[in-house]
Amino acid sequence: MRLLLSVISRRVHRAAVHTGTRRGLSSSAGRGPSPRRDDALVVGSSRELVLSVGSQVEVRASFITEEEEGALLKELEPGLRKKRYEFDHWDDAIHGYRETERLRWGEACEEILTRVRSVAFPEGSPLLGPVHILDLDKAGYIKAHIDSVKFCGSTIAGLSLLSDSIMRLVKEDAPSEWLNLLLPRRSLYILRDEARYNFTHEILKDEESVFNGQRVPRLRRISVICRNLPAETPTSTELG
Ligand code: OGA
Ligand code: MN
């Protein structure tokens, strides 16, 4: 799965923080049983930036219940426990992690994933079959990177289990433009289109985990990530 990542060098931390209320803007959020995107969970270097990303960045608090989190953990923990956290590769995009992929799920988990897919992906969008599971140790973190455009499509949707965390997005060609997303435990985040292609994303290490002036302790965190496939490139016959 590390093939999916190309690390972009980390950028320095920036100061100004703006929240942007996006009330009244139409968005694809609000479908399904979960609450609408929670704007208080997204802050950025300017109000304009927060507004302009619009529905390309969504965080939905309490997307799953405690019971559903338990069902996912019950299914994932036995496999994860057999692996060791990897810390030693200095050039990796991810530090202090173990990971796996899962194609087949029990009924309870399948139901959760169906809900994730129905809110996150355009209808009919072909999805990457296996779901990616990333288990970050308390000391683990994910460096700034952009998911491979060769292997992943326009949308990335992730559930956060066991811990709150902060995801930072930085515009690739304008590093002074950034967003911080507070990802509460049991929330779902969705990155689409430009937010996925033109911004790096990272998960901050515990020591740096501060949202809007508020310290957010980063414990062990498991993410359950669904992705779609890249749009098919036309074949030479289709091009005529
Ligand atoms: C990744 C990634 C984020 C997360 O694996 O490419 O960015 O929520 N993961 O774990
Ligand atoms: Mn990624």
Write a structural description.
The chain has 240 residues and is an alpha+beta fold. The protein contains 5 helices and 14 strands. It has helices at residues 47-53, 66-81, 107-120, 193-197, 236-239; strands spanning 5-7, 18-19, 42-44, 57-60, 94-102, 131-147, 155-161, 165-171, 178-183, 188-192, 199-203, 210-211, 214-215, 221-227. It is globular, with a radius of gyration of 17 Å. The protein binds N-oxalylglycine and manganese (II) ion. Residues 4-5, 134, 142, 147, 158, 201, 203, 223, 225 line the site of N-oxalylglycine (OGA).
Largest sheet: 12 strands, antiparallel
Give the oligomeric state.
single chain
Element pattern in H and E: EEEHEHEHEEEEEHEEEEH
| Number of discrete helical segments | 5
Instruction: Tell me how many strands there are.
Output: 14
Q: What is the mean predicted local confidence, pLDDT? A: 86
Question: Helices and strands in order, then pairings?
Answer:
Elements: E1 5-7, E2 18-19, E3 42-44, H1 47-53, E4 57-60, H2 66-81, E5 94-102, H3 107-120, E6 131-147, E7 155-161, E8 165-171, E9 178-183, E10 188-192, H4 193-197, E11 199-203, E12 210-211, E13 214-215, E14 221-227, H5 236-239
Antiparallel strand pairs: 1-6, 2-3, 3-9, 4-10, 5-6, 6-11, 6-14, 7-10, 7-14, 8-9, 8-11, 12-13
The protein binds N-oxalylglycine and manganese (II) ion.
Residues 4-5, 134, 142, 147, 158, 201, 203, 223, 225 line the site of N-oxalylglycine.
